Every structure is written in C-alpha cells, then in structure tokens.
C-alpha cells in the first residue's frame, strides 16, 4: 500500500472517530435537555396544584373562624395565605415571560389576590360587625344584597380553578410531548453510542490490517536496498504508526467514556429527580390528602404511578446497557440449579397466578455467564406467567435438546420455554426482540418492552441464537441455544 493511501486511511479514521464522538455528545445533550424540560413542566403543575390547594385551605380556615370566632382557626388561614403568596412568586419565576402561559399565570394571580382580599375583608367584618354581616358578605359578595348581589368568593374560586385547569392542560400537553421526545432521544443516544463503539472497533481493525499490509510491503521492498537505510526507514514508520494507533486508542477510550457517562446519567442524574418526585408526592399525600379535593388526590396518584414507571424503564435500560459493560467470565453453569433459583424468586408470582412450572427431563451444564443465563430464564418464565389467558392457570414447560456439533466444533444445546398463554402472531417475531417493542398496551400488561431485547443481547454475547414459535391464543415457545460445558 502506498504511503499516500495509508495517510488517507489515517485521516479517514480520525474524521470518522471525531464525527462519532460529536454525534454521541449531541444525543446525550438532547437527552439531558429534554429531561430538564420535563422536570420544568412537572414543577409548574406541582406549584399550580399547591396554589389552588392554598386558596382552598385559606377559605377553609376563614370559614372556621367565622363560625367559631376562635383565634386558633386563623393560623391555618394565615399559613395557607403564605403558601399562596410563595407559590405566586414561584410560578412567575418558572413561566417564561414570552410564554403564552405567562398571561394565564398573571390572570390567576389577579384572581387569587382578589380572593385573598375578600377573605381578609370578611374576617374584618366578623370582627367589627359580627357573624351575620360576614355571612351576608359570603352569600352575596362584599357590598352586595339579596336584591343586587356582588361578586362572591365562590365565583372567584371557580374562576381561579378554570384558569388553573387551562394552565395545567397546556403543561400536561407539553409534558406528554417532551416525554416522548426524551424517550426518543434516550433510544437514539443508546444506539448511537453502541453503534459508535462497534464502528470504532471496526475502523481500528481495518487500520491495523492496512498498517500490517503496508509494513509487509515496505519490508519486501526495502530488502533490496541497503540494510542500514531500510532499518532506519522502517523504524521511523513504526514510530509514526505507533503514535497514530496511540491517538486512535485515546479517542476510542473517550468514546467508551461517553457510553459510561450515559449510563451514569441514567443511573444517577435521571433517577434522582424521580426519587424527589416520589418523596414529595408521598409527603403531599400523607400531610394534605384530607384537605385535597378528589381530583387533587387523583393527580398525586398519577404522578406517583408515572414516576414509578419511569424508574422501572431506567432500570431496564441499564440492564440492557450492562449486558456487555458488566459482563462476567464464562464458567460451568448447571441450568437445573439456576432454574430452581429462578423458580424460588418467582414463587409469589406463581402462587398469585395459580400457575406451575414443569421441567421435562434433566437440564445440562453449559459454558456461560451464570448471572446472565439466570436473567434470560427469569425473563422468559416471568413473561410466560404474565401473558396468560383470562381464567386459565398458566403452565410453563422447560426442556433441553442436544444439537449436532456446529461448524466451529462446538457442542450446542437448545433450551425450550413453552407456555399455554395468549401467544402472538409470528409475523411480529422480529419485532418482539427489539427494545421498546410491545404487542400490547401498557394498560393490558405491565412492563417496558425491554426484557426480550435483553435476553437476545445476552444470548448473542454467548454466540448462540434465540427465536420463538407461537400462534395467537395457543401459547408460545421460546428457543435459545448455548454451548455445552466441556467434560
């Protein structure tokens, strides 16, 4: 290979590595930005609900004082007024001045201030003119009469709720949109980083081959020249090649660190806001459930449920990413023992579903990563118990079948996990092993759509294969191959 061609190889590899690093950085940055936007919308909704709750609590405290005349009833009123004031400022800070939401926030603040002024005025009436005067003010508004009512506190509260609902609806739409974009960015970032790693390794192997071929050609040519000159030239070329390979290795390490940074974002930075959402949601439910309206409690339940689903999704993504980064060395693994351990872990689910697992014949000893093989069996058995037909107890059958020695001289075994569940149309066979691919809605069956993708990635790491046979309504059989342990 000519020197110009080799230099072209170096330049092409360097450009591709730089491009891969840049694309990976952009995708991770998008994921972080979308996560911040989702958190912002949730903060706005939280503050909005807190403000409406404060208005309700302030009115509740006022009414208690009007009825009893006891000063102690004014403390909840004053506390609630302070909450409303703090929340007004927090909403102003959260909503951009150029956002359409700003006008609604200002309108809500005007109504809330008007409501608080009225509450304070009615309390003053109670103190100066007695209960009846305060009661008339509540019924017909300040300065109003039965013949000519003024604007009442109920009308103000209804208007505040209407404005708050409009703000909440807009934020929930924005939240749904940004959540989808964040999920797409997460998927893109993961596959971009994985693809970049594979491409980088391929480029380095190609470069190594080109360098090796070039060095052989130079050695054959330089054999006809003077020995001392040939040694000097070859030494210089080797030095340059070593420097280039060192630089490429450094860039590959940077790319791998970016993949690790993504895993760190998923395991720490993304999970920490979720923990706070769940913690504050629990506090709200514990401390304010009695004063919240039914829709307020419903919003809290939805928030808690959504945070739990996101936590499960992040954990499943980490499991998928760590198939290679957290892998263990292969060893002799007794599939019979591993299966019994999995069944012990799934004992509660078996009892609740009324299902049973039958092991047909002995299971062999294979050469594999014990933790990952256990993960595959647990995912397949758990799916068999989950995707069951209504009013039919699930039955799972596990068996092993020895295969002929393959072209590489390996003795293989095929493991079958069969069930009597709902099954699926085999035209979706390729789809079910992809990340986030589901054949059923989340309301029908729980899960994130990552379990089978993890199973396939593990089996491929073991240089085996995984597939399935099924018909709708007639159950499914999942088949995967592993290498038998050498005797």
Distance between the termini: 47 Å
What's the gyration radius in Å? 33 Å
Can you tell me the overall shape? elongated
Report the major sheet: 5 strands, mixed
Helix and strand composition category: alpha+beta
Helix content, binned percent: 55-70%
Count of DSSP-assigned helices = 13
Residue ranges: pLDDT <50 for 5 or more in a row?
none
**In total, how many domains does the architecture comprise?**
2
Instruction: Count all strands and give the number.
Output: 7
Mean pLDDT: 78
Strand content: 5-15%
Task: Kindly report the spatial arrangement of strands forming the biggest sheet.
Answer: 2-4-5-7-6
What's the helix-strand series?
Answer: HHHHHHHHEHHEEHEEHHEE
Structure description:
The structure is a single chain. With 487 residues, the chain is an alpha+beta fold. The chain contains 13 helices and 7 strands. It has helices spanning 3-68, 74-94, 101-129, 131-140, 153-222, 227-269, 271-288, 294-325, 335-345, 347-353, 370-386, 429-432, 451-461; strands spanning 331-334, 356-360, 365-368, 395-402, 412-419, 466-470, 476-483. It has a 5-stranded mixed beta sheet. Strands 1-3 form a two-stranded antiparallel ribbon. The longest helix is centred in the middle third of the chain and has 70 residues, at 153-222. It is elongated and about 115 Å long. The chain starts with a helix and ends with a strand.
Keywords:
487 residues, 2 domains, two-stranded antiparallel sheet, elongated, Heat Shock Protein 90, alpha+beta
Produce the secondary structure layout.
Blueprint: H1 3-68, H2 74-94, H3 101-129, H4 131-140, H5 153-222, H6 227-269, H7 271-288, H8 294-325, E1 331-334, H9 335-345, H10 347-353, E2 356-360, E3 365-368, H11 370-386, E4 395-402, E5 412-419, H12 429-432, H13 451-461, E6 466-470, E7 476-483
Parallel strand pairs: 2-4
Antiparallel strand pairs: 1-3, 4-5, 5-7, 6-7
Helix pairs in contact: 1-2, 1-3, 1-5, 1-6, 2-3, 3-4, 3-5, 5-6, 7-8, 8-13, 9-11, 11-13
